[in-house]
Amino acid sequence: MNHRTAVVGFDIYVIGGHDGDEVSNSCFCFNAVTKKCREISPMHVRRCCLSVAVLRGSVYAMGGEGNYETHRTAERYDCKANQWSWIAPMKIGRENASSAVLNGKIYVAGGRDGQNSLNSVEVYDPDTNRWTFVAPMLSRHDSLSCVEFHGSLYALGGHNGTSYKLSTEKYDPKEGAWTEIPAMNLYEFELNAEVIDDKIFVICDYYDPKYFFHRVASFNDKENRWDKAADMNVCRSGMSTCVIENLPNASDYAYKHREKLMVEKHKEMLKGKCNRPSTHTHSSFF
């Protein structure tokens, strides 16, 4: 758990994480077409709660936590050579940060420095092998999720050490500034965000059957609003998400018993509502 995934072609790279006993530096590659998995070269250091990105066909692993240390080191994986190499370290050690590629550069935002939640954002330029700061976020975000969407960097969810109700915001690189967008109105800690069908989808990464935190929402930037999407089939914690484009055998991964599962979930939710006090005041679109 607390690993990260990255996609190159039809290959899903599973990087680092924690097995319940220790932090790992191991990495695996799963091909979604052949459905074969192989172990690849390990990272130089052990990392969980790290940030990953794919740029110019290489996989980058940045920051994270390992051996009770918050890393600021970063490394790059050459898929063809099966080799990790060091790149310049980040300005700040970060765990539970999030990253995305925007205009040919890697942005790493928020996270924790081992003690405090961060609102700082730094950018890696592969041509100069240098990190530089850009404008900080409006709020401190720990355990957030970042995505690139329509030329902007979106920072979604997380907490600042005291509250989960943070601003949901986006960064315009032309203006060099962050602005707020509508709140998601759902559990906002340890979300996973991806872009599919010209929308941002966020998936709740939290296991608690009592509250059914396996919900999904989508953001429509044309109407500047969040909408409910279909729930995940199963609650998950410490997960990672990724998107593969034009997968020829995508139907192989469709859940074949979804209708039966949805009926069972509906019955459970109705039963839970009947047993729930009538003083419920939480505001949500679900």
Main attributes?
4-stranded antiparallel beta sheet; single chain; disordered C terminus; 286 residues; 1 helix; mainly beta; 6% helix
Characterise the protein shown here:
The chain has a single domain, classed as Kelch-type beta propeller (Neuraminidase), CATH 2.120.10.80. The chain has 286 residues and is mainly beta. Strands 1-2-3-4 form a 4-stranded antiparallel beta sheet, with no helix packed on it. The relative contact order is 0.10. It is built from 1 helix and 22 strands.
Helix proportion:
under 10%
Strand content: 35-45%
CATH A-level architecture = 6 Propeller
Q: Write out the CATH superfamily name.
A: Kelch-type beta propeller
Total number of strands: 22
Gyration radius from CA atoms, angstroms: 19 Å
Strand count, sense and barrel status of the largest sheet are: 4 strands, antiparallel
| Terminal residue distance | 27 Å
- Regarding quaternary structure, what we see is single chain
Averaged pLDDT: 85
How does the helix and strand content classify structurally? mainly beta
CATH topology: Neuraminidase
Low-pLDDT segments: 273-286
Concise synopsis of the structure shown:
The chain is mainly beta and 286 residues long. The chain has one helix and 22 strands. The protein has one domain (4-274): Kelch-type beta propeller (Neuraminidase, 6 Propeller), CATH 2.120.10.
